[in-house]
Design a protein that fits this description.
The complex is a heterodimer of chains A (116) and B (479). Chain A has five helices and no strands. With 116 residues, chain A is an all-alpha fold. In chain A, helix 3 runs antiparallel to helix 5 and helix 4 packs antiparallel against helix 5. Chain B folds into three domains: 78 residues; 205 residues, no CATH class; 169 residues, TPP-binding domain (Rossmann fold), CATH 3.40.50.1220. Chain B has 18 helices and eight strands. A six-stranded parallel β-sheet of chain B has the order 5-4-3-6-7-8. Chain B has a two-stranded antiparallel ribbon with strand order 1-2. In chain B, helix 1 packs antiparallel against helix 2, helix 4 packs antiparallel against helix 6 and helix 9 runs antiparallel to helix 10. About 2% of the residues of chain B have low confidence. The chains are: A mainly alpha (116), B alpha/beta (479).
């Protein structure tokens, strides 16, 4: 269910006793990914200069629009119609977040750049 | 096909990580933003491929959604004024949260309400998904309504109604918040493990949604304007966590990874903001700071106030060799950034050394002053952080405070009884002359007397920041 983590999964399997881990629930693998990604985030974003506080925030905000992936899945159903309509709304709001977020971040960063 | 799609998702995750890394350095930031945008494009393309390969896709619906959302987003991003940036970031945080909330809701509707088998959610979908659906509704809902309140406070109004900047403290709000939180756990648990049948499921998810939305409101409504930098960063973090929760629901690692990255980026900024005020996150969120205000403010308590005007300030500046501007929220309100740059340029032409001192929590969002001054074409190498410039004030002839208050109050350094004691401040009082441009002697956000106004070396210039600067520019031309 988490094929991009197949390697991690296999490593976990290899490390444990042969019969353990045969069915690690997806939520646990998801948690591994979540915790590790949080640490990656903390490590990668070190010492942000104050000039970049706002662009970093609006850029990160645009990234949180990744929920568009889920929204597209929800909008695809023809039946049941209600779930479809809710999914459609989710697509609209996620796209506002994504397109608006990246564009406005770019606008700000160009503003910083032109004086250099 | 599935392999290709997942390779693309992985590529997008890697690009998001590189993008964020580059976004935290000035030279590479625009490139980093581009990489993140490319990652998003890849993610969307891969998702559409996935839907096509599964043979069930409603193109008109999906394309309409993408086009409408993109158009609104692009229009807003390209027309928004830089002074409105805090509320825009606040609003977009809310949209991200709302989208996660809706995905959870839609997923639940499709699987549990429309196609019910009379089972509990945990039996039908597994405990994992049952719990994460409740979480994505909860976190997404809080992010949405909390951001809307933040937006309303920053904009000063919502739907034509005026919204005060001050904290609104509901009676018994701590009890209320705890009750809502416990209620959310209880209802979330019921949604996952207890209730069955379409109608009951519908009612339960509705109650959970209402609790989440109410909690976002009660939490943010209690926080005042000057604490907004913390709140905005925290909501930014929440919008990431909400996306992660959605990732758990639809079992997609890309969402979990990107959401977690945003979550940590938001937390890093939150932490920077809290440190800059020497307060804990809990104190900002539950403290209701500033609500006790208006006791120490007003004209009382000041004995040595000397006021000044454009002519005198122009003369002082004409004789100066080193000037530091200290912008605050008042600069943003008066939209005085262009006038400020103009005066700065004029002084530089006269051979004066000009720089700008930026307190980390000046304004209403992290980096607010930097964005405003950049809009007015002030080169960013003239903007200095608190630690870099504090030693400079001793050798400065004139420090001009433009609508900042608590962040330049020397009481924070020595008065142990002051509520802001221990907060790092800009040491403007060490300058030879301090000119405070401010509309009145009214107290700042912390609601306390600012002893700077009484100091022997300070002059009060009672005016709107923009008008004051324009008048001084006129006077200087005449000198």
């Amino acid at each position: 269910m988490f094929p991009n983590l197949l390697l991690v999964h296999q490593a976990v399997l290899a490390a444990g006793p042969t019969d353990a881990g045969a069915d690690i629930p997806p939520i646990l693998i998801g948690l591994y990914v979540f915790v590790l990604a949080t640490f990656v985030g903390f490590e990668v974003i070190t010492k942000v200069p104050p000039t970049l506080h706002t662009p970093l925030m609006s850029g990160a905000n645009a990234i949180s629009g990744i929920t568009i992936v889920g929204a597209l899945f929800c909008a695809r159903f023809f039946e049941p119609a209600v779930a479809n309509v809710i999914g459609f709304c989710a697509v609209v709001f996620a796209m506002i977040n994504v397109v608006g977020g990246f564009l406005v971040t770019n606008r700000m960063l160009l503003m910083f750049k032109k004086k250099n | 096909m599935q392999t290709l799609i997942h390779v693309l998702y992985m590529l997008a995750s890697v690009l998001f990580i590189f993008g964020l890394k580059r976004m935290s350095k000035i030279k590479t930031s625009a490139q980093g933003n581009g990489m993140a945008a490319l990652a998003m494009l890849i993610a969307i393309a891969a998702t559409l491929m996935d839907l096509v390969s599964q043979g069930k896709i409603e193109w008109p619906f999906i394309i309409a959604g993408i086009v409408v959302g993109s158009a609104i987003g692009a229009w807003y991003a390209l027309t928004v004024q830089m002074t409105q940036m805090p509320q825009m970031v606040g609003l977009f945080n809310g949209f991200g949260g709302l989208s996660s909330f809706l995905v959870g809701f839609s997923f639940f509707w499709e699987n549990m309400i429309a196609h019910h088998g009379g089972e509990t959610t945990a039996v039908a979908l597994g405990a994992d998904q049952a719990v994460t659906i409740a979480l994505s509704i909860f976190v997404g809902g809080i992010t949405f309504s909390g951001s809307l309140v933040a937006y309303a406070k920053l904009e000063g109004s919502i739907l034509g109604k005026k919204v005060p900047d001050q904290p609104v403290l509901l009676p018994g709000r701590h009890v209320l918040n705890v009750a809502l939180f416990l209620g959310a756990i209880l209802v979330g648990w019921a949604l996952a493990f207890l209730v069955q049948g379409s109608f009951v499921h519908f009612l339960t998810i509705l109650v959970l949604s209402v609790i989440a939305l109410a909690m976002g409101i009660t939490l943010v409504i209690a926080i005042g304007g000057a604490d907004m930098p913390v709140v905005i960063s925290l909501l930014n973090s929440y919008s990431g966590i909400a996306a992660s929760m959605t990732g758990f629901v639809i079992q997609n690692n890309l969402l979990i990874i990107s959401g977690a990255l945003v979550g940590s980026a938001g937390l890093i900024l939150t932490n920077i903001m809290c440190k800059a005020m020497n307060r804990s996150l809990a104190n900002v969120i539950f403290g209701g700071f500033g609500a006790v205000a208006a006791t120490g403010g007003g004209k009382e308590g000041y004995t040595n106030v000397k006021s000044t005007g454009p002519e005198e300030l122009a003369m002082i500046l004409d004789a100066a060799t080193k000037v530091i501007f200290v912008p605050g929220y008042g600069l943003a309100v008066a939209q005085a950034q262009h006038a400020c740059r103009e005066l700065g340029d004029m002084l530089e032409k006269k051979g004066v050394e000009v720089s700008y001192a930026i307190h980390p929590v000046a304004g209403r969002m992290p980096g607010h002053m930097n964005v405003l001054l950049a809009e007015a074409n002030v080169p960013y190498d003239k903007l200095f952080e608190m630690d870099q410039i504090n030693a400079e004030f001793k050798t400065t002839d004139v420090a001009i405070i433009l609508g900042a208050n608590d962040v330049v109050n020397p009481a924070a350094l020595h008065d142990k009884n002051s509520p802001i004691y221990g907060m790092p401040i800009l040491n403007v009082h060490e300058a030879r002359t301090v000119v405070v441009v401010k509309r009145s002697l009214g107290a700042g956000f912390a609601g306390i007397r600012n002893e700077l106004f009484d100091a022997d070396n300070s002059l009060m210039f009672f005016s709107d920041a923009k008008k004051a600067l324009t008048d001084v520019i006129e006077e200087l031309k005449a000198v």
